[in-house]
Specification:
Layout: E1 2-9, H1 14-26, E2 30-34, E3 39-44, H2 51-60, E4 64-66
Antiparallel strand pairs: 1-3, 1-4, 2-3
């Protein structure tokens, strides 16, 4: 399992954080997103999810990640 933390760009409210968490969890990623801290903590199996796919899921929800 890989565990990483990213900065999230583009969130306007706590609902944004909840949407990101939901989309990632649907993709098989454990996610904890904080609107107040503008961070996303994830844990995923590198055999089932790549960092590129993770970024794509977040991007498709309307947000960007930075390392």
């Amino acid at each position: 399992m890989i565990r990483k933390t990213y900065k999230v760009v583009g969130m306007d409210c706590t609902s944004c954080a909840m949407l990101i968490e939901s989309e990632l969890e649907d993709a098989g990623v454990r996610a904890s997103c904080s609107y107040a801290k503008e961070t996303l903590e994830v844990e995923f199996d590198e055999q089932k999810m790549s960092e590129e796919k993770l970024f794509a899921v977040v991007k498709s929800s309307g947000y960007d990640l930075s390392v």
